[in-house]
Amino acid sequence: MSLTETADRPAEKLAADLLFGANAIASELGIDVRRAFYLLEHKLIPANKLGRTWTASRRKLREHFETA
């Protein structure tokens, strides 16, 4: 199995979907980090906190804004 074939595995797809940190979430949303922190801290976007690190799913963020 080559390295390109491993991207088709479910665990690899899940890892590619996850965003770690407010900077990554802000970048994905196209907003500044302070605004991302506001949205995260007020639970206005779907995200979770792992210790001190915010995490979010690209898919869930996309769905959230498509239905909003």
Question: In words, what does this structure look like?
Answer:
The chain is an alpha+beta fold. The protein has helices spanning 10-17, 22-29, 33-41, 58-67, and strands spanning 18-20, 48-50, 53-57. Strands 1-3-2 form a 3-stranded antiparallel beta sheet. Helix 2 (22-29) crosses helix 3 (33-41). The longest helix is centred in the last third of the chain and has 10 residues, at 58-67. It is globular.
Structural key phrases:
globular, 16% strand, 3-stranded antiparallel β-sheet, alpha+beta, single chain, 68 residues
Quick structural overview:
By secondary structure, this protein is of the alpha+beta class.
Compile the SSE list and pairings.
Elements: H1 10-17, E1 18-20, H2 22-29, H3 33-41, E2 48-50, E3 53-57, H4 58-67
Antiparallel strand pairs: 1-3, 2-3
Helix pairs in contact: 2-3
Beta-strand content bin? 15-25%
- What's the count of strands? 3
Largest sheet: 3 strands, antiparallel
Structural class: alpha+beta
Q: What's the number of helices?
A: 4
- The overall average pLDDT, rounded, is 88
Instruction: Give the CA-CA distance, first to last residue.
Output: 42 Å
Helix content: 40-55%
* Spatial strand order of the main sheet: 1-3-2
Mind telling me the C-alpha Rg? 14 Å
Instruction: Enumerate the spans where pLDDT stays under 50 for 5 or more consecutive residues.
Output: none
Shape: globular
Task: List the domain count as a whole number.
Answer: 1
Order of helices and strands: HEHHEEH
